[in-house]
Specification:
Length: 416
């Protein structure tokens, strides 16, 4: 690549690819100086200059003008400097060309190497800038292949990894399957952008509802909190800023049309949608649906984030859920530790004061309407109930707790 070809190629790349010509030229100068020092033992004060118009390459050595020369490699006397140009003064610097013979061959090879490397770096940077905008959002990907336990998917111009821990348990990923994923992380590496995606993150559920429910997208309905055990069940608390808009109904859709799309995308994962309430007692009652709660007692100090819950004797296993799932998700959804007992147990042990509790029969009949109308999403498997049942559940009481602080959605509930 001669100097004319170099400048022509740089101008073309700058125009078509948007890669700054000056950046590449500066990198070539740096690489040529390194090659010059390595091959010709050039002095430390040398530099390489490329003429931006012609492409001519020179190696220059700079010397400081001094009254008395102590190192002739880096200094020149004022008298000798003024022989070159009478305008020189002490402290000025004088450049001397020291371009080695056969340097053109080295410069051509080095320029080509730098050119190719900078082009690759620019392409990687361009890809990174494009996909970093998609971080913390969802996208549709196409399954490509399996890499041990990980799944490699295509995001279009680049591949991403679906790690084993971010895959829904029991879900199969076959070649050319189209699935929606949550883009966990986009980071730049020496080999280009590295992208990790997830099928288990609770934000995937949130983003899917934003796509399906216009009221969420425009801000009329707000998702306040989400607790998820991927592949099994999700609880989601919603709130409407417009009193005339039913938040739960908007998310469910006519005949379950909207929630069905999300359920289908998640492989049949059950989704409970409840109304969020700023009253922690009402919120906890709703979170424990479909069980009917008799009474809730929260600590006087709200920082304790603790609640005692009483349910009817025949509702205890329903409130706890299979393997404790219902109360575990309710705890994560509300951001509170939940200690739950049957009414008989509670009265026998003085668990709470029933003086302020509502009439148990009235509470048992309360229903927010969602479970009756859309009971296909709320078919709980009852846990084995014993007289000794006494369990406390909190936001961390799960084998599938997310590693990050926001994963259980409890921070949203606490802020409210």
């Amino acid at each position: 690549m001669d100097k004319k070809e170099l400048m022509a190629a740089l101008n073309l790349i700058e125009k078509e690819k948007g890669i700054d010509k000056e950046t590449i030229l500066a990198a070539i100068e740096e690489s040529l100086l390194s090659a010059c020092k390595k091959n010709f033992g050039t002095s430390e004060n040398a530099r390489v200059e490329i003429n931006r118009e012609t492409g001519d390459i020179k190696v220059l050595s700079s010397k400081e003008v001094t009254e008395e020369v102590t190192d002739d490699r880096t200094q020149i006397s004022l008298e000798d400097a003024r022989k070159i140009d009478p305008v020189y003064e002490v402290g000025d610097r004088v450049d001397f060309e020291i371009t080695p013979k056969n340097f053109n061959r080295i410069s051509a090879t080095t320029a080509k190497q730098v050119f190719v490397q900078k082009f690759r770096d620019a392409e990687r940077e361009k890809l990174y800038n494009e996909y970093i905008l998609k971080e913390k959002d969802i996208d549709t990907v196409i399954v490509q292949r399996h890499d041990k336990k990980n799944v490699i998917v295509s995001l279009g111009k680049i591949e991403a990894m679906l790690p084993a821990k971010e895959q829904i348990k029991g879900e199969e990923y076959n070649f050319n399957d189209r699935i929606k994923v949550y883009i966990l992380e986009v980071k730049q590496t020496s080999k280009g952008p590295q992208i990790n995606v997830s099928r288990t993150h609770y934000e995937l559920v949130k983003r899917l509802f934003e796509l399906e429910v216009p009221e969420i997208y425009d801000g009329t309905v707000e998702i306040k909190s989400i607790a998820r055990e991927a592949g099994s069940r999700t609880k989601m608390a919603v709130y409407s800023k417009n009193p005339e808009v039913d938040a739960v109904g908007a998310c469910v859709g006519t005949g379950g049309s909207r929630v069905n799309v999300v359920v289908s995308e998640l492989g049949g994962e059950k989704i409970d949608i409840i109304n969020w309430s700023e009253d922690p007692k009402e919120f906890i009652k709703a979170a424990l649906n479909p069980a009917k709660v008799i009474a809730v007692e929260t600590g006087e100090n709200e920082d304790e984030k603790f609640a005692k819950v009483v349910v009817a004797d025949n509702q205890l296993s329903l409130a706890i859920g299979k393997e404790g799932q219902n109360v575990r998700l309710a705890a994560r959804l509300t951001g509170r530790k939940i200690d739950i007992k049957s009414e008989t147990q509670a009265r026998a042990t003085g668990f709470i004061s029933f003086d302020d509790a509502e009439n148990s029969s009235d509470n048992a009949d309360n229903d927010d309407g969602y479970e009756e109308e859309y009971d296909e999403y709320d078919e709980y498997d009852e846990a084995d109930e014993t007289d000794e049942a006494d369990d406390t559940y909190d936001t961390d009481d799960t084998d599938d707790a997310y590693e990050d602080d926001e994963a259980d959605g409890s921070d949203i509930a606490e802020e409210e």
